Fold this sequence. Notes:
The protein is of the alpha/beta class. It is 48% helix and 20% strand.
Amino acid sequence: MSTRRLRVVLEGGDTYDIRVGHRLLVNLGVHVRDVCQATRAVVITDSEVGPRYLSDVKTGLRKAGFEVFELSIPAGEKSKSVAVAAELWDALALLGIGRDGVIVALGGGVVGDIAGFVAATYMRGIGFIQVPTTLLAMVDSSIGGKNGINLAGGKNLVGTFRQPTYVAADLAVLATLPAGEWENGFAEIAKSALIDGSDFTQWLVDNAGMLVAHDETVVQQAIVQSLGFKARVVAHDETEKGLRECLNYGHTFAHALEAVAGFGKISHGRAVAEGMRFAARLAIEAIGASEGFVKLQDDLLDNLGLTPIAESYPADELFERMFSDKKVRNNELRFVLATEPGEWQTIAVDPDLVKIYLILWEQARM
Length: 366
């Protein structure tokens, strides 16, 4: 299987490469050397990913002439915190890392988010490389430059926009993913397809079974198509002033659900899939979406193994949490809603209507 290469071109003229294929970890140093003038590399990873892949990454970087250091954080969402960020800033300072350094984020979305945030803020910004090790990170968080940490009030409430210098998605690492991590990626791929349009959506409908079976050719194509879609969106709206909000389809409900359930109790993919189902039903009354679109989306999510969650959570708590969403403007609840693949809008929805649909959602699980 050949490596696929994409290029993100931003409105300001900055660009960076993404590679999707095999042997990208062991060859990482060569590719980083091509795009980076740094002489020192700090690999930030976590307690689960490090033991599996850190050795290959360090070897590859050293072969390319980098002085290499490693920093590890505990695996899990709790590491996206001010406290962990401060520990990493202090560690970089103790190592004497300056602007001759580059940070390599080796891990899933949590590692990518906090490593990117630390890279963007340490010394007012040093370069960083994304090496995603989950399907979710490959198709979503590793590109686009959004980096952040969580607060008690919600996810990603403190963060930056800073693009990576290079992204390496090595398909070999997916072999060790547990089922839940595959589901996380499937949800984001489905979101991308439905917002992108009918061609991507139909391809995913046709290939859902092969994707669930982890057919490598289909997995690579799904990653490439999702990245291509997101790259086009980010190119036109790097700092989420308009168009980029479409990437939050399903996320207003999902983030509220994750918070009310307790971070980590429901996987991000399951929460996003549930949020997409909620948004499609809300869109029937809010913007005239059809039952046909709801069924199309439901069938696709079902075929990807993303069946509705059985647990019920209080509608009033979900409603309150929704006001922590970054799309809230002037105290108005705004949702990304779609009427068919590729046809979407971000609108303020009557709070009373949202409450009704939240109550219906809660009651359906009692």
